[in-house]
Amino acid sequence: MISHVDGYLEHIMAVCCDNRSGAVADYIPELTRVDPEGYGLSLCMHDGHIYSRGDAGTKFTIQSVSKPLTYAFALTRLGFAETDDKIGVEPSGEAFNQVSVDDRRRPKNPMINAGAILAASLLLPPVRDIGPGLVDTVFEEVTAFYSACAGRRLSLDVDVWHSEAATGARNRAIAYMLDSFGVIDSDPEAALDLYLRQCSLQVTTDDLAVIGATFANGGANPRTGRQVLAPEVAQRVLSVMTTCGMYDGAGDWVTSVGLPAKSGVGGGILAILPGQLGIGVYSPRLDQHGNSARGIETCRHLSTDLGLHMF
Ligand code: DON
């Protein structure tokens, strides 16, 4: 039987599916292989119940939606003082792939590529010439952390990872630029590799919704009952997502949708109502900021219709 919520989600999707604006990301060749019409929507409530419609079971790569997770893992491992010494918490007002650093040459925040590559580097030992074997070990820990947030084991899209690695000149440049600033203590190639692998983990909108509900719930996964991260880490990550999660579209997003969120060029958006629920949306056509165009419209409707705006 279809519940009121399911019926409402179907209604929203019917309203937004005419939005065919934007284009699928093509700067990573493997990402062009997706169905541009793909559209999924999931909500995970604080009791762990999931409502999902459309292509909610379709796997896509998490891409930049990984950034809050790796930031949370770095905060958990290193603590606030050490992490804050390396990565700022100020919006950059620039595109995700700009080398936006502050006067201490720290990346301005962990939601842009520079900050995310640095966050990945913090998970690696502070030595040069780290081989792929050690990156394998750390990537397994990262995957285990993401999987605990999602409540199921996530896996790598090897083709996307290789495609990103082969065409990742921009990210390689960012890693080496940070290295030249003296802010990466680890090996820049290993940090880049770890970042590209985390971006290539596959998720569904159900996964994003559960990850969101885990953060909404002070770090306790509502489906498994496991405390995956500390409440103060969840609070910090949600704060930074609110101001920096949608890049240079962040101000427009916060005023119109009013929720902490993170987008990825795979077409996913994770949005969170603290204390209440997680939202996962998937639609791969992107706007000029690299955010899912239909996903943004969907979140606007959800926020307005259900009164989710935090302010
Ligand atoms: O760094 C990159 O190019 C990608 N792997 C991730 C970028 C991304 O998802 C930006 N988000 N909208």
Automatic annotation (TrEMBL):
Binding site for substrate: S64, N113, E164, N171, Y195, Y247, V265
Any one Gene Ontology BP term: glutamate biosynthetic process
Catalytic activity annotation: L-glutamine + H2O = L-glutamate + NH4(+)
Domain of life: Bacteria
Keyword Hydrolase among record annotations: yes
GO molecular function: glutaminase activity
Enzyme Commission (EC) number: 3.5.1.2
Root EC class: hydrolase
Keywords: Acetylation, Hydrolase
Subunit structure, as described in the record: Homotetramer.
Family in the record: Belongs to the glutaminase family.
Full protein name: Glutaminase
Recorded name of the encoding gene: glsA
